[in-house]
Amino acid sequence: MSSAQRAWEWFVGKVIRLSGAMAIVFVILIFAFLLRDALPLLRSASLREILLGDTWLPTSEPPKFGMLPLVLGSLYVTVGALIIAVPLGLATAAFISEVAPRWIQEILKPTVEVLASIPSVVFGFLGLLLVGPWLMELLDLPLPVFAGLGSLMLAFMAMPTIVSVAEDAIRSVPTALRENSLALGATRWQTIRRVVIPAARSGIIAGTLLGLGRAIGETMTVLMVTGNAAVIPEGLVGILRPVRTLTATIAGEMGETAYATPHYHALFMIGLILFVITFLTNTIADIAVRRSGGVAQ
Amino acid sequence: MKDRVIRQSAAIALCVAVGLALFLAGCGGPADREPGAPARTISNIGSTTVLPLADEWRAAFNKVHPGIEIAVSGGGSGTGIKALISGSADIANSSREIKDKEVEQARAAGVDPVEHVVAYDGIAVIVHPSNPLDTVSVEDLSAVFSGHITDWGAIGAPGMNRIQVMSRDSASGTYEAFKELVIALRGKDKSRDYAASALKQTSNQGVLALVAQTKAAIGYVGLGYLDDTVKVLSVTPLGGGESATATVGNIMDGSYAISRALYCYTNGEPSGVVKEYLDWIKGPEGQAIVEQLGFVPLKES
Questions:
Q1: Which structural domain range is residue B82 located in?
Q2: Mean pLDDT of B58-83
Q3: Which residues of B touch A61 (CB under 8 A)?
Q4: Number of independent structural domains in chain B
Q5: Is there a single domain that holds both residue B135 and residue B229?
Q6: If 0-12 CB within 10 Å is exposed, 13-18 middle and 19+ buried, where does residue B18 land?
Q7: Do B237 and B132 fall within a single domain?
Q8: Å from A92 to nearest chain B CA?
Q9: CB neighbours of B252 closer than 8 A, spacing ≥ 6?
Q10: Is the domain of B181 the same as that of B88?
Q11: Neighboring chain B residues of A21 at a CB cutoff of 8 Å
């Protein structure tokens, strides 16, 4: 290697290392920024009132910063989305990698990826103008906007993530496992269900958690279709009633909140809660991916 | 190897520290501006309710005074007042009165907010076209929007589902104005607030669309946003009396109960081109635009 090449190698190496370090720096800066603007809220309300309070009326006198309805709202919408998206995504992934002939694979895979590139405001419009009023008529609901509508829309947005990660995981299951199973007399369906999917479990869990991260952070769609009523959802019927999510609260209220007021700090506290939730799910997803041998990469 | 890891960690830590320091340094105090200093460019920021007015005023004023540049942007009443305090706005538009907290912040930053009423706006109460109700009192509206009444039968429209309350978001000036004028009964009952179950919409159009789709809904929008997809209720004022619908005439003669002023705020008494602009807005030409856009002009003009 000439000395010019060596200098170039050295330079490129440093640039790549710096880029890697920058990602860490950005995450730490965002976290520091959130902390700086969220913690002053503790001067106006105790942590207990914030996390367990059931009333969110930040502009009332005195203001009430109970975030429990918002956290539960986000959970309802997100869990609902996963209940729809995971079976659908898993079936699609299994179909693409195990069953479908090559030409169908080649059409289906890019189509699922296109689903990921549709802007969230489009899903919001579809839900608000088409799916919501239709479901209201069909199920005789009092309102055309509700938690389940948000779940349905988010399910379609989280599916591409789940499909592509799960598909990679299924594809990386050794062929020998399938052949052994089939040789023992198992049917194709039994092989997929009892051998391939359990073997790809870690990758599937990772895909699910990445999909969850996508769903819980989504803002525009839920702001448009979940109705934004900060009430604690009641039981299973709650899925057909309006809720208010963490993200929609920040988006809806940030515009006119006076700087450095308790309300302003409360919105940053919501941001901090979201950050912690997505950080945890991503970390768990990462561990799951590592355990399955890095299939998602 | 271990040595290298330590050195890299140190480098990262240094980056973070420098980044943080730069970031915090950037958050210093607002730039101050001499009160009432003359300007050839007027920066006009604030309420989205006032925005269509501000845009038309700018266009019409520019035809008469082409030398004066006016930069108009929205963001909301709070955003406008924030901008006035930080010195980036010459005129802050607001659909509500400035809050005591904001006055405090302004004083602390050496800004003296001066209020100018530039127009009036009515807030119309709307229901689904199939709703049999025609008239409602401010007292009943207060009970409905605060969640004390949840049944249509209790306010004179029996045989319907539970009332579905639609509201603007707490960031909106209309939200604050409706709370003050209706829910808190013009300050008589300050403890009352919106019911938690009220659906919060981020725009007037959002409220309008949802009320038009939902049979049991009740909501409110600014006068300028009304169309025939919804039914407008006639409102009986506080303490009883003749009911009136939200029309420009009823707001001007004071018979419609839910109306509010729209404001412009300046830093100190305006002078120079800012004074010229505000005088023009309050004059016949500016007020003609107010009427054209479905708002209510100042009474004296």
A1: 40-119+262-300
A2: 88
A3: 190
A4: 2
A5: yes
A6: exposed
A7: yes
A8: 35
A9: B120, B296, B297, B299
A10: no
A11: 8, 11-12, 15
Position B98 in a domain: yes
- The interface predicted TM-score (ipTM) is 0.76
In a domain, B33, yes or no: no
B77 touches chain A (CB under 8 A): yes
Statement to judge: residues B134 and B238 lie in one domain: yes
Choose the weakest-confidence range: A26-40, A99-113, B19-33, B64-78: B19-33
Say if residue B170 is in the same domain as residue B125: yes
Q: Residue B301 has what pLDDT?
A: 45
- Check whether A7 has a pLDDT greater than 90: yes
User: pLDDT tens across B246-269, in order?
Assistant: 988 898 888 899 998 899 999 999
Sign of CA dihedral B11, B17, B22, B23: positive
Write down the pLDDT at residue B300. Answer: 52
Q: What is the dihedral of CA A54, B199, A71, A219, to 10 degrees?
A: -160
Q: Could you tell me how many CB contacts below 8 A there are between chain A and chain B?
A: 103
State pTM to two decimals.
0.76
User: Does residue B44 belong to any structural domain of this protein?
Assistant: yes
Over residues A209-232, the pLDDT tens digits come to 888 888 898 999 999 999 999 889
A256, A257, A259, A267: which to substitute to probe chain B, counting the most B Cβ within 10 Å?
Answer: A256
Q: A44-296: what CATH class?
A: mainly alpha
Amino acid identity for residue A287 in this structure = I
Same domain, B143 and B209: yes
Does residue B291 form part of some domain? yes
Do B229 and B165 lie in a common domain?
Answer: yes
Which neighbouring-strand residues pair with B297?
A: none
Q: Give yes or no for A261 touching B (CB within 8 A).
A: yes
Burial of A174 (0-12, 13-18, 19+ CB in 10 A): exposed
Give residue A123's identity as a one-letter amino acid code.
Answer: F
